[in-house]
Amino acid sequence: MVVACEVRSVGKWATAFAGLTGTSMLLISVACWALVWVQQQGLPESVMNEVVNPSLLPVGRYQFVAEWEAEKDFAHKIGRKVEDPDASGNAAWEVRVGEDTPNAHALFGPYAKVAPGDYIAFFRIKLLDEPVRDFAFELDACVDYGRRILNSVEVADLDLVQGKFIQIPLAFRLTRWSSGVPSFLAGQCFGSD
User: pTM for the complete prediction?
Assistant: First the structure.
């Protein structure tokens, strides 16, 4: 499996650790936005166009919180920086099954203080190989430097689209001020007022 990651942002409704084990290739990017429970507003068209099933997104007004690049803003235990003309900055973070250690974090950090609220992080991921019907990776939102997981999602290679970036949202609720908020594979984060 090859995984390339590109982390782009964090905000209310955020997320993040990833342990990769599957047998396919991926490119990844993350975004986070804040959510106000009114209607689904504020998410850029570029994000909405890459969400596989937008009807499953929480309804509300999204507010951008932060953005990070996987290849330069995160710590890494496995993988490498690669060129990708479809990624922001033309670079992504790649992880390969058979070359990289399974069940290790491709990306973690950066840790930031954020206010209590509802967050959603969008992980931008591209599958490079044919899917083989296998577990690909897990995304999670953590606080206290990874000691407390707020939410997580397992992603199979069949959840991805070969050769095309898609956005994978991960929602979580932060109930108190905390440092060590999520690490991301790649993407943008949005939050709510």
Answer: 0.74
